Amino acid sequence: MKEKITINKILKNLDAIITGATLTLCVILVNINVIMRYFLNHPLQWCDEIVTSLFVWTVFIGSAYAHRKHAHLGVDILVNIFPHHMKSTVQFIMDILQILVLVMLTGISAQYVYHLVYVRGVYKLAVTDMLRLPKWWTGIAVPLGFGLSLIYALYFFVKDRLHQGGAKNKMENAGEGGTNG
Asked: pTM (2 decimals)?
């Protein structure tokens, strides 16, 4: 039986939908341009500009999606070299560092997009060379991707801390129950 597509499901998976759509468009446009260039000897001049913009969206929104799904590659060699009782402390420090880096990257990329629109306090819209499209349209994907990753990192950080607190309370309660009973 097919699952019903609802607005709620679309919004929950908007990062995946945007990533899939932009990647699909990239592949289609690149293939069309290859056919036009090599078989018809008439390349689409505007194609590179559009594909570059779509690829930026694919990478940064896709990165946020991967963060949400815990699909980023990780090297836990640093965490694994510590004794078991220290792993949670090291993981806590790594989570804090990740959040700080994401805050910094979101802020810097947002400033970059701001400067694509305002130059020295004057509204001046930077545009692309070929199609004269606003550059902020491509650039906005960067702070959106980092911002989404930051939101997911904060969510997982709080969830992990609450889970650890709940696990500690359960262990303490089990220990107390075992001595009294």
From this structure: 0.82
